[in-house]
Amino acid sequence: QGETSVDTNTTEPEWNEQISFIEMFPPLARKIKIQVLDDANVGDVAIATHYIDLQQISDPGRNGFNPTFGPAWVNLYGSPQNSALRDIHKDLNEGMGEGIFYRGRILMAIAVEIFSSPSQPGEVTVEVEDLHPLPENVLGRKEEFFLFAAFFEATMMDSSLTSKPVSFEVSIGNYGKTEEFMTKVRRKVEKGELKEEKQSLLDPSDDELDDEVLAPASAAMNKSVTKSQRPEPTEYDRSYSCLPMAHEKPCVYVWSYWEDHTWRLCISNWIVKLAERLEQGLDDVEKLMRRPKAKAEERLREVLEEFVAGCRQYSLGAERKTMANPNNLDKYRMKYLMRNIILSAKQGLRVRRRLTRANIKEKVKDTRRILTKLRFMAKEPQCTLPDVLVWMLSNNRRVAYARIPAQNILYSVVEEEKGKDCAKIQTVFMKVPGLHTGEIFAKLEIYMWLGVTKYTKNCLAELPEEFKYFSESGQETAQLLVHSPPSRLSRDADFSYFQLRAHLYQARGILPADDNGLSDPFARVVFSTHCQTTRMLEETLSPMWNELLLFDQLIVDGKKEELKTETPIVIINVFSHNKFGSPEFLGQAFAVPQVKLVDELYSRPALQFFDIYKGTKAAGELIATFELIELDYSGYLEDVEPKEPDYLGDPRAGRFIIPEGIRPVLKEFRIEILFWGLRDLRRVNLFEVDQPQVIIECAGKKVESEVIMAYKENPNFTELVKYMDVELPEQVYLHPPLSIFVVEKRAFGRTVLVGTHVVSDVMKFSPRELEEEPEDMPK
C-alpha cells in the first residue's frame, strides 16, 4: 500500500500527490481500496473507505481498455459519529458493510501505463511523488440541485416506537443534515491531547462557492426534517405501529450544489430500465412454466422481441447523447456500452430463433445470463451525486435508515433516462444500522424528485390530483414557486375507497423453528396501515390456511390510471408461534394485488406462487392471490363474486374461507408407507443415536413409525405398513410436499431432530394406471 502525506488541522485537505505501484500486469487483485485516515497520536483512525472494482473501470476484451478512472469525485460513507471512541459502527468506516452516513468526498484519478522494458520487477514497488494541481473547473461548474420528498405513509414500524414521537430527515451529502452534526466540538481526551473535531468532512471545493452562486440563500431555506408525530397501532391487528398520515402528507426539500454530470446517470438509467423490463418478463415466463398448458414459450418470444427493440432504441439514442466534460473512462465506456448492447441484442435474437417448447428452460437460463450482464453494465463507476439518506429519528435519536441511490430518483426530460423511481410513490424499507437479519424496521411510501433547479417546475407534476399544497405558514399555494415548495399536502374530499381481499391458501417448505424440526406457523398480512393475521396451525412445514382476509374501506394513494402499473405492494410475514415468548420470524414475501376499478368487469384471480425470503436466504414459497377492488360511492360491490364470503369453521371466530372458484377442488388420496429400517445415522450433539423414530407429514396429516429401541443392535422396524388419508388438490402443481423427519427420544421426554428430507412431488409414487384418476399412492 502507498500513503499520501498528512495534511494537518483541516477538513478540506489538498494533497496533489501521485502513488504509483510498479508490478506485473494484469494485477491479481480485483479491487483498489482507498482509505482516508485521521493521523492521530494513538494510531490512525479510518474516516472512510471506498473500493473501486477494477472490472468496472476496464474492459479485458479484444477492443478493450486498461483500468482508467477520473479525475472524478468519489463519495465516502461510514458511521454517523466522528469520534472513534464509543462508536459502535466504526467498522463501517473500515469499509465493512454499507455506510449509513455521508462522510465527505475525495477527488482522484487512476491510470495504467505499461512499460516496454522486459526487466521483471522482483516485488511490487510503491512510489509517491508530487503532482501539479488540476486546473480550476476541470469538472465543470457547480449547479444547484433541488431534492423534494413527500411522505405518504409510514407503517410496519417496530412496536417499540409507540411511546416517543417520530420524525424523518432527508439529506444528500452534507445538505439537509440536522444541526447537531455541523457544530464543532473540541474535547480533551485523557490519553494525550487528542483534539477531536466533531464536524462533517466538507467538500474541498466549498470555498469556491462565490457570492454569485449563493445569491438565493437556499441552503438556509432547506426544510429537511418532518414534524414529529406519535405512532399509532395498525388497524385490526395491533402488532405494528404506523404514523397518522391518512389525509396530511408532510414534505421536505433540500437545495444542494454539485458538478452536473447527470448525463452519466441518464445513460445508466436507460440500461437499468432495459434490464428491469427484461427481468419482469422473465419472471412472468417462469410463473407460466409452472403450469401445464400455459403459453410460456409465446411469452418468452414477446419478451425477447421487446428487449431487442429496446436495445435498438438505446443505440439510436446514445449516438446523439452529448457528454459535458467527459474524461477517458467516459469515452471508453460509451463505446463499450454501445458494443455490448448491440451484442446482447444479437444474443437475444439468437435465443428467440432457437426457442422451442422443449428447450424453454435452457433458453430462460440463457436470457438470465444476458440480464446479469446488463445489470453489471448499468453500474456507473463515476457516480458524482451522493446517495440520498432517509433517517428515522425517534426522540431525536437516529434509529433506522434507508439509502436511496441518487440515480433512481433523478429527473430527465427524456422518459427513458429518468430514474426508475423519479416522481413515483415508491416503497422504501428502513433498516436498523448494523443488523443483518433482513427484518424490516419500517416501511415508507415516499414520493421523491431530484433534479437541476431549472426543471423544478416539473417536480410536483406527477402527484395525485386530489391533493392541495400548503406552504410552511399554512397558506394554500396553487403552483410551485421556486423558493417556497409546499411543506405539506392535504387531501381533498374527493377520493375513492378500496377493498383488499387476501386469499392465503398455503405455504410450503418454510423454515423449522422448534426442536422437532417443525413450526407452528401463522402469517401477518400488511397493506398500507392495516395488518391482519391468519390462524395458527400446529406442527407443520406446509401450513394449509385456506383463509381469506378482508381489508375494508382502504384509501390508496396515487393516480387511479397508474394503479395498474404502480400497484402498492402487500407484505406477508410468516411467524412461528411461541408458547413462552414473542413469535419467531420465519421469512417474508411480497405480492402485487390484481386491481379492479369500478368500471371494469370482475374476473376471478388464479392462485400464484410467491417466494418467501429471510434476509437473502430462500425460506419456502407461498401460494396465494390478492385482489384490490375499488368500491363505488355507496361502498357496494357490484359484480364481485361472492359479495359476502363464507365463514371458515365457527362463524363466531370471524374467519373467512377462500371462495369457490379460487380455492382448489380437493380429492381424497391414500398414502401408504412401508417402513423398512434406518442406516448410517450420525451423532447428534456429540451423542450417538440410540432410539430413533420416523415421522412423515403431508397436507397437515402425520404418521409416526414405532420407536426403534436399540438402533445399534437392530436398526430395522418390526411394524412395517402404515397409511394416512389426505385431501389433495386436483391440480398437481398445487400439491403440498411430503416431509420425512427422523427424531430421537432422549431422557426426560426430550426429542431431538436427527435429519429431514422433503419430497416435492408426491405424484411420482402413484401407480401408472392411476395417473388419470389417482386414488392411492404407495411409497
TrEMBL record:
It is a single-pass membrane protein. Gene3D superfamilies: C2 domain. The keyword Plastid does not apply. Its main location: membrane. InterPro entries: C2_dom, C2_domain_sf, C2C_Ferlin, C2D_Ferlin, Ferlin, Ferlin_B-domain. Residues 1-69, 481-610, 652-775 form the C2 domain. It comes from the Eukaryota. It holds the Pfam family FerB. One of its GO terms (cellular component) is membrane. It is found in: Membrane. The keyword Membrane applies. Keywords: Membrane, Repeat, Transmembrane, Transmembrane helix. GO terms for biological process: plasma membrane organization. This is FR1L4 protein. It comes from Piaya cayana (Common squirrel cuckoo). The lineage of its organism: Eukaryota, Metazoa, Chordata, Craniata, Vertebrata. The gene is Fer1l4_2.
